[in-house]
Write a structure and sequence with these properties.
By secondary structure, the chain is an alpha+beta fold. Helix content is 69%, strand content 9%.
Length: 478
């Protein structure tokens, strides 16, 4: 009877606990958040992503990878391979599982604690049993679940930003690799021509038809061109390996094929309206900052709600003693705010909130600036590349044709013809780099508007030209 009287007192408490537990129970989602990540990635890159497991990789991803590598790579296929095969990205996706586990844990009540005590005094034995429930943790389940829900959303944004950033870096590595390969192939032709000129100069000097000074100049050009070819080959290897790392390929997979030249320039530069506004709406880093600020604000509300009552446990206890009837009752454990009134905790939460707020504003300001800077780089590199394509390279070809006509009419020597060919080296290399720089700037612009920014190594400035100027002084001297 006594137990029933105590249970009558505790029944509303346990009933409320049961209702809150049932209402706050959270379960794992079927996709682990990957559907949203894939949708955001596809919207910004045109490619989907998935969480690869060993068995799934062998069945589907492995076959897709083989099909993509069997054909010459394109910017899109290279990005698709990276999103499918990069193990660092897959490790980042595992953070989603961690965040979802925290979300599920936040929706459950903390496990009850059980206590048991036994004391013997002579022939008397006293036994105490108790089970305690965390009431404050139960009452704050909705708040904690809301906080963890926003953190889970932030984790999805982070995963999508990582995927978009990988696609951006892979596209840039692709353009660098193709340009470096194109430059190396051109320098091979230069070395062949320089070797022929040096050999011709040596033979003519032997019969007295060429001065030692002119022979030394031809030999020096050949030696310099050989050095530049070695550098160009290494640059092509380094750029190719950078692309391989981002795509996550190894072994036989590294034998992928690249096209012989960069894609042609578009007929006109892309017209983008309200680029800054698009960035404010679509950039993932801004959305992550907003979610973080919202989570911090909710955490501040939780800190204020539990400022004075931080620990409140309620439970059922019974007591058994030798020669006496069992006693039943309940126990309430409350932490008293005597020394620590949690003012520091609330002040810390408020400071963290203000820090998050200012960081969000700073990210927005930086994003707007990145868009303007990237747009300037995009338009400038397009105009420069088009100028090389439409003006400089055709002029160089026209000059070469005129020198060839003079040579055919015996009005110019073979060495004048070779000197003109050397003069074209710098222009051709600069044209290749200008075309590469345009595609890099176009990738950065899309990242500044739709993605998460240009990345740690991104810069809106024009890429430094490294065109070979080996022929400058020699051409003038001749």
């Amino acid at each position: 009877m006594r137990f029933q009287r105590h249970m009558h007192i505790l029944r509303p408490v346990f009933g409320g606990m049961a209702l809150l537990v049932l209402a706050g129970c959270a379960t794992f989602s079927s996709d682990g958040g990957m559907d949203a990540v894939s949708a955001m990635t596809q919207e910004r890159t045109g490619q989907t992503v998935q969480l690869s497991r060993p068995d799934d990789y062998k069945r589907s991803a492995g076959e897709t990878l083989r099909q993509l590598l069997a054909k010459p790579l394109t910017p899109d296929s290279a990005a698709q391979i990276a999103l499918l095969n990069n193990q660092g990205l897959q490790a980042g996706f595992a953070e989603l599982g961690i965040a979802e586990a925290d979300l599920v844990s936040a929706g459950w009540m903390r496990n009850p604690s059980f206590s048991f005590g036994r004391m013997r005094t002579g022939n008397d034995i006293e036994i105490e049993r108790g089970i305690m429930f965390d009431v404050i943790g139960l009452l704050t389940i909705p708040i904690r679940s809301g906080i963890e829900q926003r953190r889970f959303e932030q984790a999805r944004l982070q995963a999508a930003a990582q995927a978009v950033g990988l696609a951006r870096d892979t596209r840039k590595a692709y353009f660098n690799a193709v340009a470096a390969q194109q430059t190396a192939q051109y320098m091979e032709q230069v070395v062949v021509a320089a070797e022929a000129a040096a050999e011709l100069a040596r033979r003519m000097a032997q019969v007295g038809n060429f001065s030692k000074l002119d022979q030394a100049r031809e030999q020096a050009f050949y030696a310099d061109a050989t050095t530049q070819l070695a550098r160009a080959r290494h640059n092509a290897t380094a750029a190719r390996e950078q692309l391989s790392r981002l795509m996550g390929v190894w072994g036989e997979q590294t034998a992928f094929r690249l096209p012989d030249r960069l894609p042609d320039l578009p007929q006109a530069p892309e017209a983008i309206k309200d680029a800054e506004m698009q960035a404010m709406q679509q950039r993932l880093d801004i959305q992550m900052a907003k979610r973080g600020t919202e989570s911090t604000a909710r955490a501040l509300g939780l800190s204020k709600a539990s400022r004075f009552i931080n620990v409140l446990d309620i439970g059922y206890v019974n007591k058994s003693e030798t020669g006496a009837p069992r006693g039943n009752g309940y126990e309430i454990e409350l932490q008293l705010p005597i020394f620590d009134w949690s003012g520091a905790k609330v002040a810390k939460a408020e400071a963290i909130y203000m820090q998050s707020l200012h960081r969000t504003a700073d990210i927005a300001v930086r994003a707007r600036s990145e868009v303007r800077e990237s747009w300037s780089a995009y338009r400038t590199t397009y105009d420069v590349a088009r100028h090389y394509r439409d003006e400089i390279v055709p002029l160089r070809k026209k000059i070469s044709d005129e020198v060839l006509l003079r040579y055919n009419g015996m009005l110019a020597s073979v060495f004048e013809l070779l000197a003109d060919a050397r003069a074209q080296i710098g222009s051709v290399n600069a044209a290749i780099e200008a075309q590469r720089d345009y595609w890099l700037a176009e990738t950065d612009l899309q990242a500044a508007i739709n993605g998460g920014g240009r990345g740690a190594g991104g810069s809106g400035g024009l890429p430094a030209s490294s065109a070979m100027q080996v022929s400058g002084d020699t051409a003038q001297e001749h």
